[in-house]
Hints:
globular, mainly alpha, MetI-like fold
Amino acid sequence: xxxxxxxxxATLPVMAVVAVVVFxxxxxxPGDPAALIAGDLATEDDIRRLREALGLNLPIWQQFLxxxxxxxxxxxxxxxxxxxxxxxxxxxxxxxxxxxALLTMLLTILVAVPLGTLAAYRxxxxxxxxxxxxxxxAFSVPAFLVGYLxxxxxxxxxxWFPVQGxxxxxxxxxxxxxxxxxxxxxxxxxYIALVTRMTRATVMEVLHEDYIRTARAKGxxxxxxxxxxxxxxxxxxxxxxxxxxxxxxxxVVVTETVFAIPGVGRLVVDSVQRHDYPVIQSVxxxxxGVYVLINLLIDLSYRLxxxxxxx
Length: 311
């Protein structure tokens, strides 16, 4: 418990640095949000009054302290364009993003771990080479290109799935799965390639250990031996999954854009185009917080795989 508390306290400086960097990147970037909101027909006086109303005329440090004070109370601010609280916007867009992210990671683990284990067990065979070719191709081809190919093949030529959009799970499990199937496959391919390669490398290393030879000498079957090897190789695999979360945050933006899904990724893209900095700041800060939290959970999971680990 003390280790968890120390790790949580250690994340505070990290989040503070993230908050400063996010705030400066947004406010020092070129472009005037007040001029964009006012439109092309606005006069200089109109832009000046709007800038004062939004607090953009204040010094940067003062704007940061005001934003930080609101953040401490749970107020993420209000969207400049829609005049809707950012928490409300995130609540409206969170379900599609969470559904795609969770299903993507589930699909990755269910496919990549057995595939990598099989490739390690049959190292040097045609199965191993085929798995590695798949991993290289999946990791090399851009996600947006794979997305368009999936749409063309399975939504246009074979109308099995919808071309775009998202159906809430409240409208039925079948329509919901059909709406997220292609986005999840598109997003999962790169992570399947990443985890497959790591699983193959770690399991192959473990299979040459003395205790694996002993287990084989005792007459254990293939599945018990592989299960034993996989458990001992689970720590680096779990670390790779944690690293994949960071890639997943960026991949969701591309996937939601390709499949026109109204999630947090699309919200970020629209906000960047409009210079809606309260939304951008909030999403970036929350993404960093989620990434730090998930890596903490991954670290805590190590002991489940290897009881010898002490915190």
